[in-house]
């Protein structure tokens, strides 16, 4: 599980993502899939970069904020510490690991759209066991898939 943030057109958004994977070793590439139902997807459609954050199991509160709340109703970024990264990307403070990736391609996969990213900036915070799907399965989606 990871949290993906997007910035475009003066808007910030972020959501909990379960569909994400490295998709190339050389050159380095990573793909994240965003639900078309999410506000994050609407912002990401025109974003130059996305930021992918890995959380530890003790950061379930962040997973609940980004997975259980919708940016249509709540300013998630007002509730936490974050900073600007490459090209104005939103980087969450304290993530176990993160990277900003330039969006190279967008692929419509049905109810989700894949964003192929080229990592351009990265870092990390405190380590620990990473948050997994089994740790987040009880979070009720802020924008459930219909």
UniProtKB/TrEMBL annotation:
Annotated source species: Streptomyces musisoli
Protein known as: Flavin reductase
Domain Flavin reductase like: 1-139
One of the Pfam families matching this protein, by short name: Flavin_Reduct
InterPro entries per record: Flavin_Rdtase-like_dom (IPR002563), NADH-dep_flavin_reductase (IPR050268), Split_barrel_FMN-bd (IPR012349)
Keyword line: Oxidoreductase
Keyword Coiled coil: no
Top-rank taxon, per record: Bacteria
